[in-house]
Amino acid sequence: MLQPQGLSRTDYLTRPGSLAVVRPQAGAGPDVAAADPETLEPFVLVEASGAVTAFNGHVDLGTGIRTALAQIVAEELDVGFGRVSMVLGDTAVTPDQGPTIASETIQITAPALRRAAAQARQFLVARAAAKLGVPAQDLVVEDGVIGRRMAAAGGSGETVADAPPSGDNRFVTYGELLADDCIRLALADDVAVKPVSEHRIVGRSQPRVDLPSKATGGLVYVHDMRVPGMLHGRVVRPPYAGVDVGDFVGTSLLNVDESSIAHIPGIVAVVTLGDFIGVVAEREENAEAALRALRVAWKPTPKLPDLDDLAGALSKNPSTPRVLLDTGDVDAALAGAVKRMPRQYVWPYQMHGSIGPSCAVADYSGGRVRAWSGTQNPVPLRADLAKLLDLPQDAVEIVRLEAAGCYGRNCADDVTADAALLSRAVGRPVRVQLTRDQEHAWEPKGAAQLMTVDGGLDASGGVAAYDFQTRYPSNASTTLALLLTGKVAAGPVVLQMGDRTAIGPYDFDHKRIVCHDMPPIVRAAWLRGVSALPNTFAHECYIDELAAEAGVDPIAYRLRYLKESRARDLVQKLAERAQWEPHVGPRLREDSEGVMRGRGFAYALYVHSKFPGYGAAWSAWVADVAVNKHTGEVALTKITVGQDSGLMINPDGVRHQIQGNVIQSTSRVLKEEVTFSDIAVASREWGAYPILSFPELPPIDVMMVPRPDDEPLGVGESASVPSAAAIANAIYDATGVRFRELPLTPERVLAGLRAAGVSPQASAAALALPACASSGKPSRLKTVVMPLVAAALGAVGSLGVMTLPWRGAIAPIPRPDPAVFSAATIERGRVLAHLGACFVCHTAEGGAPLAGGLKIETPFGVITATNITPDVETGIGAWSYPAFERAMREGLHRDGRHLYPAFPYTSYAKTSDADLQALYGFLMSVPAVRSVTPAPDFKFPFNQRPLMALWNTMFHRAAPFVADPARSALWNRGAYLVEGLGHCSACHTPRNAMGAEEKGALHLSGGIAEGWEAPALTRASRAPVPWDETAFYDYLRTGWSRHHGAVAGPMAPVVAELKALPDDDIRAMAHYLASYGDAPKSAAEIQALAAAREAATAVRKSTPVSVPGSRMFDGACAMCHEPGRGPALYGTKPSLALVTAVQSATPDTVVRVILEGIHPPGLGTLGAMPSFADHLSDWQIAEIARYVRGRFAPERAAWPDLDAAVARLRAHAGAR
Amino acid sequence: MKSAPERVLPETMTLRDPTIRLTVNGETHALRLPGATPLLAVLRNDLGLNGPKFGCGIGECGSCTVLVDGVAARACVLHIADVDGRDIRTLEGLGTPEALHPVQAAFVETAGAQCGYCLNGMIMTTAALLDANPDPSEEQIREALRFNLCRCGTHVEILAAVRLAAERLAAQRLAAGRSAAQRPAAPGRRR
């Protein structure tokens, strides 16, 4: 564990043998020795054991401040780094230093810690001076050992341990000085700290203290917190996902149907408060299942403004202008400009995108709550929980554990409140983790922003005026449970946070800066760089435009207006480092492939916090790009980044922060944009919100300006700030085209290049592609076949049921003694039972084997498989062998009733007597289970069993299999297995209007199984590579063929059953099935066909049929379905170029597999595919399917009406 | 979700909810749970392991990565029935803070993590990669980690960690080869 938990201030401050430096809380008296320890905020605690504990109200978000703060304390206390442990963000103990934001920890909160450590040291040195009778200035401390200052021979070092043998060798340790005392010092304001020249720990790179534990699965994260008696909770969020302003927030719930989760075991509670819904279960996966299954009715959700037009939405959002700066006479200067240049820059909504969905554990008991949380804001969160739960603040404790990186505000606070509500409801500790889709949808977004600049050049090429306006729709994103429960009204709240770095760095004579404060449109808060990143995008692109217009090198032009010496120094040093070649205007360097190269510059001092705020580290970028003018792809070929951070506590830590900022902001600039449906956030997983991946990582050259004598500055965000402008300016240098809206996706860049005439126009065919999504009626077997069957059977019915032949019952027998069957017979029967897939249909989900109960969908209604265990009353225990044989061959119940051909007696009839006898023996030997089978739910006339007699006369031949002497023994064996007990034709052969299998050329030419397409096994197959004997064998044996993919749907359990068959039989089946195909090809030919097919579809077209589909495919599907990409993974990676379903006339199989996933039971080596139903909308799945079809089946017509097909199949899946 | 069957049946009798056996970090566990129980939930909640993390639940991010028969696998996507009888290794099964596995040590030394939530996946994917390909090219490393997402932007340090781990493992093999030149090779975990 990284830090102790559950301790109070009293626990720390009353320890014998300790020295604490504390700050009295507001209102407490100055006598800290006499004060109630709970009113004292500790900073540093030195113990006689040698251990040092230091306290800070800020938390480590993965930036390494736990390490850097410990360095500061160790330095000032003169103890070894390893002695110091930090307690961060525990509201029961740590000082209230506000939320961990704005890169403030080192710059703002650490000085107090540093003073406290220095103060403790001075106190101890003074004690030592008294004890040793030596003046304090003659003493030196090393690792908590105080001795007389000695001049080491031949060196300048001062040591205690290596003191020369002569002179005063006495020393005393901190521990000895403290003895059993319990000392408290009030933190002083005027404590002398060490000069930088004496630093031995600060300013040197120190390995991160948290990583060994993180790398080995230690208890570090709140996600790993487990409390005795803990339950698992999940929340069900309203449909207005990611929207938190409006009178519908907290008031939209109509009702919760708890019966919808009655089938899920271990549900402890469903908690409803306003629009807050939570479920609590004993097991986590059951809470998750309940979240997905719970039926909830909501009021209609109001529509959002059109967020495809962000500039329009932001312009129309009501706002209040706030003038931040107005110098000179802007209006007059604008009017007098020689070249007027009005510009508009647009920043999209973006995500924090924490890799781990937020999680918390809360334990509410006895009117107190303790919450383990990953919050960035422990103290404000405590106040929120107190309000939510109607508790005094001191009854709420927030224990901070680490969490997935957050770069502003994610759902960590929300989920803590959720856990507290659920724990209160059930009276036990509850752990709640959000789902990926919830974290994506509900995290407060980094706000979109609109910047407009009016300005231009004067006659001398100087900047005539700069009239800058910025619009930023965000608030603090009130902890969600407060809004959902109605504790806090979800009214518009306007925070003045659009002004970060709004003034800009350049000293223009006529300059006006206006921030339009406005309420949020969707849930938004601060994200790394806050409004400074967008504002700097505008500032730094605009000055680049001015420089180009003025005919001056962009850096030289900036330096005309950049007055601050540290800024100029950084800019000049970076230009030198990057070997900047001064130039004017775009250089348009293009190679023969159409790749255009350019470089761009941008600079920023990140000014943050309440206006006018203050600066963190200075940062500047030189970005090198390569733009493919045919595809619009932008590759960063190098980023040279310079930063002036003042004194760097942990230089490696600073470097990591710079690199992290560069990578994350590059990702934001090139790729990231939240998408919305008309009511909510639509990006709910990483396919719809892709982030930078390893292959896209640019080379990064980091230049850290050494300034050890200047105050340390915040480094958590600065290097992000120049990113967008540097990249956009580089693209301009490469192409001559200005991009003023992000992200710089291939489609946006290509469109811009085409509009500017840089790239050739799209071909007519490519332009026509979006029209492929034309409408058309989907053909549905059920709706087409059913009326025909009804009509046909209706006509038969008119003949009169009584005219049909009647078959008699076969007398019941006592249950046969299994002992009469030999072990060999039973074993043979067992294998045959698997071949016949008896278990598949005759075993219910979770039910006893062969006891029936599985519901089977047929075109005629739902039928329940019967109990075929030897139970006398409810199974087949009373069936004699002749009764069993008659059922298998003629489809008759023992009592003479007709069975429906959902039971494939039409195939089973072909089984040999010996095999039927063995099967009978096996069935009589299994445990008898009492289980009554419900009657089929068929509508008239299908519920008229006697009609089946006529059906049998028309369609059934009850003859055993007869071998074809013209064929090989292998073929005949295969035919016997396939056409008999294997009953492949039951699914793979189309049926006529009467539900009977078609004959002749249509045999095995494709059918329907439980709503799934059972593809053709004959020449009618649409498989891109023909099925051959090897493929059939691989598929039947393992569920997988390299050239065809993996089993899905009802075929998966069939293959699992076939595991019982010997290889020879599988080979025979494969041989027989292959005989339905064309003349066999050699393995090499098959291999070549497959390779050609994959090569042909591997081409990534510049304009895929669906651009969003292509993007989502890359994030959600490519890991397993892009040959040659990604890691080797357990299981298979089906190649979509070869999968038959992609070639089908209907999208049903592809869509169902995306919606439902694949978990082939008993075929574990295949791996699995998850269901995407909860993370992808109908539209998103349709776009992915559209892309897959367009890419992997380019010769075939686009699937019509995909959106409707997804909606239909989703409804179907939900109804099951 | 369905409840566990009341009695244990012979494996061949049913495909639904048999007793499932998982060997995790060398120890075999018999589980009476529905076959559709997510492997990740069992590793974390039944076996109390912290290494594999829930990141997305749909196999996109890699933070849940474990090794199944020595190959990287996404535990959030697999059901326990999908890995019945398999050999599973988690981050905890690689090494301890006192005795780090070379891949873990490399990630600690290069600071291959900021928040570290993705770290499990990075380490496990790297371990599997280096087992299969001891001397990967830069391109192969990046490709192997393509679908392991890191949001903090620790990519530079992570790549350095993979390279360092490859060097260390190669040195280890060299040393082991020298000290046991004539002994037959240990059976590999890969099948």
Task: Give structural notes.
The complex is a heterodimer of chains A (1216) and B (191). By secondary structure, chain A is an alpha+beta fold. Chain A has five domains: 9-214, 2-Layer Sandwich (Aldehyde Oxidoreductase, domain 4), CATH 3.30.365; 222-302 and 358-433, Aldehyde oxidase/xanthine dehydrogenase, molybdopterin binding domain (Aldehyde Oxidoreductase, domain 4, 2-Layer Sandwich), CATH 3.30.365.10; 449-761, 2-Layer Sandwich (Aldehyde Oxidoreductase, domain 4); 784-955, no CATH class; 1020-1215, Cytochrome c-like domain (Cytochrome Bc1 Complex, Chain D, domain 2, Orthogonal Bundle), CATH 1.10.760.10. Chain A contains 36 helices and 37 strands. A seven-stranded mixed beta sheet of chain A has the order 11-12-9-20-17-18-19, sandwiched between helices. In chain A, strands 14, 15, 16, 22, 23 and 24 form a six-stranded mixed beta sheet that branches. A five-stranded mixed beta sheet of chain A has the order 4-3-2-1-8. Chain A starts with 8 loop residues before the first helix and ends with a helix. By secondary structure, chain B is an alpha+beta fold. Chain B has two domains: 11-93, Roll (Ubiquitin-like (UB roll)); 102-177, [2Fe-2S]-binding domain (DNA polymerase, domain 1, Orthogonal Bundle). Helices cover 32% and strands 11% of the residues of chain B. Chain B contains five helices and five strands. In chain B, strands 2-1-5-3-4 form a five-stranded mixed beta sheet, covered by helices on one side. In chain B, α2 (102-109) runs antiparallel to α5 (155-179) and α3 (119-132) crosses α5. Chains A and B meet through α5, α6, α16, α30 and α33 of A and α1, β4, α2, α3 and α4 of B.
